[in-house]
Amino acid sequence: MFGSKRLYASLIKEDDLEELYQIYISNKDYLQLTEGISDGIGVYTKEQVAEWMGRKTLGIYMRDNMKLIGVLEYMERAVDGNPWIGLIMIHNQYQSQGYGSEFLKSFLCWAQHQGWNEIRAVVITIEL
Description:
- There is one protein chain.
- The chain is an alpha+beta fold.
- The chain has helices spanning 17-26, 28-35, 46-52, 99-113, and strands spanning 2-3, 7-11, 56-62, 68-75, 84-90, 120-121.
- Helix 4 (99-113) links the parallel strand 5 and strand 6.
- The model has no long low-confidence stretch (mean pLDDT 84).
C-alpha cells in the first residue's frame, strides 16, 4: 500500500492473527485503560481480535524483514462523513524508537493522496 524508509503498510491478513494478538496484549497501559486489567490474561481472545479484522486494519511491518510490529485501524467514512483513525498501536518492544510517528506521517501522506482533506482521530486521555 504505502511505506516509509523503515516501515511498510498492508491490510492485515488472517495469517497475521497471532502477531496481531501479541501486539494488543503487549500494551499493558492500553489494556489497563480499556479493560481495567494489565496482565492481558483473559482480556482479549484471539477470536475477538479476529472479529476486528473486518475493519480497515493496516499492519505496520518492518521493511527489512516484514515483521508485524504495529497496527492502525481507520474508517474511510464515518457517520459524520469524515475519515477517522480509531487506533494506532506499536508492540511494546518497538516503542520509543520513532516507529509510530514515522508510520503516522506516511499514513497522512497516503491519505492526502486519497483526497482526504481532514482526518479525525479518537483520543483517549487519562488522569494521572
